[in-house]
């Protein structure tokens, strides 16, 4: 559906504000929803901050920044966000129950032609899609943080996702300047399934005092050309987020490779969540 002109982004946090920014940057009218005015305001402020940083680096002009901001609006009502939308992208926290509630409300207010997408990194597309009357228009669009810089988008098709919906999601990701990959709905998709295995094993190596976090990361960065080591990445994503995904994959796939190490559980319990708390495997 190359005619996507209006996009609703549900969730103005880490992922949602970035998805809103890149959608507005390609000419879409974007409505950014969150639960209160403060959350919406923070999301819009972060978009402005990203654009201002782009001006400083010579990547964005002031006119381009102003055009992007002019195409953005905020709301605290899901129905107001999705009315008339061609594409709805949910970027709420990784809670199945929360996502199901959101899409039940979306389904009642969004136009019938709208594509409905979730930014989940690991949860079942089929189960989330069960909250809507027509699951053929439902698809996963998993973006990566920071959205305005990272090139990958996982387009995840569920058992009832239509080819038209899947292809439209791929086309829109390409329009955003991203590199889409197409993945079947399976626990962890491609990126989380591989990334979590590497992350959990790296944490076990720290736990067993095999090497320091810095040296484990350096092994992957210099030995395998990863742009960032698994422990620094865990800090960036959030230890609590990675713990939740690991628990889900361990429960659904039954593989010990996904079992969260005791060290990870202890760090999360102590509030050492990575960059967002100032302390994880590194000090931020």
Describe the 3D structure.
With 284 residues, the protein is an alpha/beta fold. The chain has two domains: 6-184, NAD(P)-binding Rossmann-like Domain (Rossmann fold, 3-Layer(aba) Sandwich); 191-269, N-(1-d-carboxylethyl)-l-norvaline Dehydrogenase, domain 2 (Orthogonal Bundle), CATH 1.10.1040.50. 48% of the residues lie in helices and 14% in strands. The chain has helices spanning 16-25, 37-56, 62-70, 78-82, 96-109, 125-129, 163-175, 191-207, 213-223, 230-237, 239-253, 262-269, and strands spanning 6-10, 29-33, 72-75, 87-90, 115-118, 138-143, 152-157, 179-184. It has an eight-stranded mixed β-sheet, with helices on both faces. The mean pLDDT is 96.
Strand sequence of the main sheet, in spatial order? 3-2-1-4-5-6-7-8
CATH architecture annotation name of the largest domain: 3-Layer(aba) Sandwich
Estimate the global geometry from the Cα principal axes. Answer: globular
Strand content: 5-15%
Q: Write down the secondary-structure element order.
A: EHEHHEHEHEHEEHEHHHHH
Biggest sheet record:
8 strands, mixed
CATH class of the largest domain: Alpha Beta
Low-confidence stretches: none
Q: What structural category arises from helix and sheet content?
A: alpha/beta
CATH superfamily of the largest domain: NAD(P)-binding Rossmann-like Domain
User: What's the CATH topology label of the largest domain?
Assistant: Rossmann fold
**Nearest-integer average pLDDT:** 96
């Amino acid at each position: 559906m190359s005619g996507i002109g209006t996009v609703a982004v549900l969730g103005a946090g880490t992922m949602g504000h970035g998805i809103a920014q890149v959608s507005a940057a390609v000419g879409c009218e974007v409505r950014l929803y969150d639960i209160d005015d403060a959350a919406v305001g923070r999301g819009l402020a972060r978009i402005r901050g990203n654009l201002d940083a782009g001006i400083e680096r010579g990547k964005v002009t002031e006119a381009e920044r102003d055009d992007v901001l002019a195409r953005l609006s905020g709301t605290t009502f899901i129905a107001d966000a999705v009315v008339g939308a061609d594409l709805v992208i949910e970027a709420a926290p990784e809670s199945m129950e929360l996502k199901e509630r959101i899409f039940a409300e979306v389904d009642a207010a969004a136009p019938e032609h709208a594509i409905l997408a979730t930014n989940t990194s690991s949860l079942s597309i089929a189960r989330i899609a069960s909250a809507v009357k027509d699951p053929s228009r439902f698809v996963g669009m998993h973006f990566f943080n920071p959205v305005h810089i990272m090139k990958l988008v996982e387009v995840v098709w569920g058992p009832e996702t239509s080819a038209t919906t899947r292809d439209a999601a791929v086309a829109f990701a390409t329009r955003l300047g991203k590199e889409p990959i197409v993945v079947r709905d399976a626990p962890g998709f491609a990126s989380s399934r591989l990334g979590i295995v590497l992350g959990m094993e790296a944490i076990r190596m720290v736990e067993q005092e095999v090497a320091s976090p810095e040296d484990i990361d350096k092994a992957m960065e210099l030995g395998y050309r990863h742009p960032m080591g698994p422990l620094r990445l865990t800090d960036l994503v959030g230890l609590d987020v990675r713990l939740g995904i690991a628990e889900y994959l361990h429960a659904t796939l039954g593989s010990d490779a996904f079992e969260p190490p005791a060290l990870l559980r202890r760090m999360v319990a102590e509030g050492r969540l990575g960059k967002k708390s100032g302390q994880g495997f590194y000090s931020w």
